[in-house]
Amino acid sequence: MELKIENISKDFKKKRAVSNVNLSLNEGVHALLGANGSGKTTLFRMLCGLTKSESGGNVYLDEINMYQQYNSYLFHLGYMPQHFGFYPHYTVEEFLNYMGVVKGLKKDYIKQRINELLIQLNLESKKNSKMKSLSGGMIRRVGIAQALLNNPKILILDEPTAGLDPKERINFRNMISSLSKDTIILLSTHIVSDIENLADDILVMKNGEIIYHNTEDNLLDTMKEKVWEITVTNREASQLLQDYVIVKTTLNGDYVTLRLLSDNKPHEHASLLTPSLDDFYLYHFEDEGEEHETINQTRI
Ligand SMILES: Nc1ncnc2c1ncn2[C@@H]1O[C@H](COP(=O)(O)OP(=O)(O)OP(=O)(O)O)[C@@H](O)[C@H]1O
Question: What region holds the ABC transporter domain (predicted)?
């Protein structure tokens, strides 16, 4: 299977939200990383036919042209929007049933599929709970379930891990891994660690453009000899904080251990560390770091 995206773009007034995107994606997990406003949601909406491309262009699932054979394309698509609407008074089962009907699925199939998905997403005990009574993480899981109702060939998940607790994150990883063998999965996230060792390839979006598309190992290779650790006094640390991108600080009494990014050895006692995706992200998006969840937690 191939999802082929040919030269699609979207402008909002003077703002270019998606710029000439060309991609070819096969079965597997494709993670889309980017700061707030980089164009991820707009690109996903375009791949769902909800936002039109202004540069012409095309989207194909194998031989199906999304623009010309939209219903056939939709038949193979599962989408979880970043903020999905639901009727608060519906129970989880009623909501999923409603979504199945909207997708044009058969009654018996919907029933069987809902039961499978409630087990898979650990929502069985919430089957008869009203949507309005669910936590943010549970609502996310219902959102993933509705996207999977039609057993899609393309699964698009916009920020699927937002609001999930650590256990739910592990379940999510396992579920995505098991689906990835025969599904083209595109997911966006701000939480870089959620895609580590999960995504087959990583797409990095900045100002509407895909600026990197590569495997995690190849992206990390570009960070070799750029990630350093050093333990210094508080006073020296203050200076280094001004001069370098700091990924993490750990206090040890009168000393501070810094994980920092630099093209050159920043200090005679600095030693090299193995790069992580967080390092890669910060190196390229340092100016947009305030919007990056993991970094906010570790920076001082
Ligand atoms: N309906 C709209 N009208 C005007 N501008 C829009 C609209 N939707 C998106 N934009 C703009 O397009 C750009 C890309 O937005 P988009 O929501 O696609 O980014 P994003 O990467 O998904 O961000 P986030 O991570 O915050 O969801 C932003 O500058 C945004 O303000």
Answer: 3-232
